[in-house]
């Protein structure tokens, strides 16, 4: 069995819970409050700045030149394409930049940067995979079940349900399977652990936006 098939089984419950959480249900129906979406967008801006650095670090640490180029493309997309989605919404909903990271956003980005800089590169690749894969699945899920009428969040949905993003996700999955096939059982276990932790943090990221999470002190 491929590593990614096994890894997905481990997070099946988390993924189902992600699709059922109020943030995504309301995003799908278009009823999500602007406050919550604004909070999400602002935190996602902070997230993307750090996430692209993690991807660039992985690119630099790859042993294989095609993979270096793939991760450079992923990092570029995180900055350029996602930024344009953000900028559109920032203008439309009067979101201002320069937010301070929320506790969950801080937790997630620091986890990814630590994995990308200190762990074996294969483990770092597994840690960033949920960001691609869960977003694709959630995008497709919402696209399939929404009624598609006047949803203010349609651009967000179309970005992640789109074909271009799908190809990127397939590539990220393929790379993880290839590197995992040359790892020891112990290394594969570490990859799975990182994949599961990042998936929990994805869940928490949406939840923290719904709760408009604040630092307790
Ligand atoms: C918390 C959070 N997780 C994942 C994504 C989705 N995403 C952001 S950059 C990128 C890869 C681009 O190469 C993907 C899939 C997001 N926006 N916010």
TrEMBL record:
<comment type="function">
    <text>Catalyzes an amino-pyrimidine hydrolysis reaction at the C5' of the pyrimidine moiety of thiamine compounds, a reaction that is part of a thiamine salvage pathway.</text>
</comment>
<dbReference type="InterPro" id="IPR027574">
    <property type="entry name" value="Thiaminase_II"/>
</dbReference>
<keyword id="KW-0784">Thiamine biosynthesis</keyword>
<dbReference type="InterPro" id="IPR016084">
    <property type="entry name" value="Haem_Oase-like_multi-hlx"/>
</dbReference>
<protein>
    <recommendedName>
        <fullName>Aminopyrimidine aminohydrolase</fullName>
        <ecNumber>3.5.99.2</ecNumber>
    </recommendedName>
</protein>
<dbReference type="InterPro" id="IPR004305">
    <property type="entry name" value="Thiaminase-2/PQQC"/>
</dbReference>
<dbReference type="InterPro" id="IPR050967">
    <property type="entry name" value="Thiamine_Salvage_TenA"/>
</dbReference>
<comment type="similarity">
    <text>Belongs to the TenA family.</text>
</comment>
<keyword id="KW-0378">Hydrolase</keyword>
<feature type="domain" description="Thiaminase-2/PQQC">
    <location>
        <begin position="8"/>
        <end position="211"/>
    </location>
</feature>
<dbReference type="Pfam" id="PF03070">
    <property type="entry name" value="TENA_THI-4"/>
</dbReference>
<dbReference type="GO" id="GO:0005829">
    <property type="term" value="C:cytosol"/>
</dbReference>
<comment type="pathway">
    <text>Cofactor biosynthesis; thiamine diphosphate biosynthesis.</text>
</comment>
<dbReference type="GO" id="GO:0050334">
    <property type="term" value="F:thiaminase activity"/>
</dbReference>
<dbReference type="GO" id="GO:0009229">
    <property type="term" value="P:thiamine diphosphate biosynthetic process"/>
</dbReference>
<dbReference type="GO" id="GO:0009228">
    <property type="term" value="P:thiamine biosynthetic process"/>
</dbReference>
């Amino acid at each position: 069995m491929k590593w990614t098939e096994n890894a997905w089984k481990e997070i099946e419950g988390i993924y189902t819970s992600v699709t059922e959480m109020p943030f995504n249900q309301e995003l799908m129906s278009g009823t999500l409050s602007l406050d919550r979406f604004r909070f999400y967008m602002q935190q996602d801006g902070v997230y993307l700045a750090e996430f692209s650095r993690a991807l660039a670090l992985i690119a630099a640490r790859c042993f294989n030149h095609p993979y270096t180029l793939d991760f450079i493309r992923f990092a570029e997309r995180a900055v350029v394409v996602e930024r344009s989605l953000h900028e559109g919404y920032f203008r439309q909903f009067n979101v201002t930049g320069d937010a301070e990271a929320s506790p969950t956003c801080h937790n997630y980005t620091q986890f990814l940067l630590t994995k990308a800089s200190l762990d074996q590169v294969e483990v770092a690749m597994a840690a960033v995979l949920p960001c691609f894969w869960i977003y694709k699945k959630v995008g497709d899920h919402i696209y399939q079940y929404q009624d598609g009428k006047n949803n203010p969040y349609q651009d967000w949905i179309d970005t992640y349900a789109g074909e271009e993003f799908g190809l990127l996700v397939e590539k990220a999955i393929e790379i993880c399977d290839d590197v995992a096939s040359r790892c020891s059982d112990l290394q594969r276990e570490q990859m799975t652990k990182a994949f599961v932790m990042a998936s929990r943090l994805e869940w928490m990221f949406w939840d923290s936006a719904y709760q408009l999470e604040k630092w307790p002190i």
